[in-house]
Hints:
By secondary structure, this protein is α/β, with parallel strands linked by helices. The protein has helices at residues 21-33, 40-43, 69-72, 81-91, 103-115, 133-148, 165-170, 210-220, 248-260, 330-345, 348-369, 398-410, 435-456; strands at 48-52, 55-58, 63-66, 125-128, 153-156, 187-190, 231-234, 265-268, 292-295, 307-310, 373-379, 382-387, 413-414, 416-418, 424-427.
Amino acid sequence: xxxxxxxxxxxxxxxxxxxxxxxxxxxKRQREIEGSALSYPLGLPIVMEEGRGATVKDVDGNxxxxxxxxxxxxxxxxxxxxxxxxxxxxxxxxxxxxxFPTEIRLELIENLRKxxxxxxxxxxxxxxxxxxxxDAVESAIKLAKYNTGRHALIxxxxxxxxxxxxxxxxxxxxxxxxxxxxxxxxVHFIPYAYxxxxxxxxxxxxxxxxxxxxxxxxxxxxxxxxxxxxxxxIEPIQGEGGSIVPPDEYIKRISEISxxxxxxxxFDEIQAGxxxxxxxxxxxxxxxxxxxxxxxxxxxxGFPLSAIAYREDLxxxxxxxxxxxxxxNVTAMAAGVASIQFFxxxxxxxxxxxxxxxxxxxxxxxxxxxNIVGDVRGKGLMLGVEFVENKETKKPATEIAARVREESxxxxxxxxxxxxxNNVARFLPPLxxxxxxxxxxxxxxxxxxxxxxxxxx
Length: 457
Ligand SMILES: Cc1ncc(COP(=O)(O)O)c(C=O)c1O
């Protein structure tokens, strides 16, 4: 099957004002009966009825290009027939097995071991967690604590690791933490190489990776105030923080510093893993090596699943140290096996690199021509456009980003926003999006940006 056959051919097709009549009613009812901690439908008021590849149809018959992919979960697109086939086959056999072994469970572990790079290949241990990425983070930290007997933790500015208590403590966004006190104690944040807004006031020209050096200083100086940590957790390419790609050297140094101070390093690959950035794992760009890797989102081929993969010598935690009812989602495991085979058979990394650099180049042209686009960046199909009020001062333009999302939406593009100031439009399409469809979507996004720019000037 060719990639264009996965998506709805008519996308985008918008029939009138959005949301349409039926969508409006359902959105209203949701607000009435569901808890008020909702988030996505507030920015993208869509009621999805059908998803195909990189396209979505709503209940009013409008068809959208999906640059969001269920927050990066749907790497192989909505309702990928090959994944669905594997799912149906599994669901006709058995669907829930806790952590009892099944053939498909072991097949997934074997597949994961095969796609690991370097010394991790065929040697990592895999531990499944509850169905969300946050639980993989919880278990990664727990494993590091078992190994080190320590409790302090290192995290990085701009990092997002989830909403359970430990994961939220490691997440840098203050919004989630202010009303959720107390956070777990002893989490220390180190600057990330967010070079567009360097927290140390450096530029690429005069930078000597002072951000990484600061991490070393914290570990080395007996008066840094930070006790020897149990682990450091980092996204090798940041997702929710605004599609931030640090220089490879930064990630390499952070992992080397960790190693030399005997601090287990956890690479959070929940969003950037599984070919999203044009490598199976995003840490491979920097040729860095992790101790523990957190996995979720694309791991289950669109179905809920999480796991950690770690060096086998770290496997010290013993019976029932991390349990959970739903850590045996065999449906997701079958989908995961089919996904990994699909990634390999279709050489998805090549496709991602080709379509990703095409989108990036198009957006770079926009960066030059537009007064509200401050920075365009990304790797593979994890791209971001950072909006500013002024290109000199780089004042973050939160409102402008929200308006671009809205103007894109009414033209048939689903796009979410992230970043430190909620001012980054994030491109996270299914990896099977074709260059042609991506091109149509980017052109519409550019129209939306130009419209917003015209309206405000
Ligand atoms: C890098 C990263 N880690 C952890 C998480 C948390 O995953 P979940 O929302 O499935 O708990 C996310 C979610 O977006 C993520 O992007």
